[in-house]
Amino acid sequence: MTKELFCAKEQLITNHEGSVDSNGEFVFTCITKGCNSFLKFPASVSPKDFKVLLEKHEAANKGQVSVEIQEKKLKELMGVK
Fold this sequence. Notes:
Elements lengths: L1 E6 L4 E9 L5 E5 L7 E4 L5 H15 L5 H12 L3
Antiparallel strand pairs: 1-2, 2-3, 3-4
């Protein structure tokens, strides 16, 4: 199962694959471009709380600068392909 969520690493809404880990927690892994970053939520999260947590996640992470983004920009500045 997939759901579109904000990916802090990609800085975009991307497809995330949902799963349950061995502790019963919910894990949503970004499957866009092989990113593999993930969001994790407690087993007790309700649909209402899940929505609120997703909104907080996006607000807290939007505009975040990742090492990967900066490395890509450095290559562009250096003229490296």
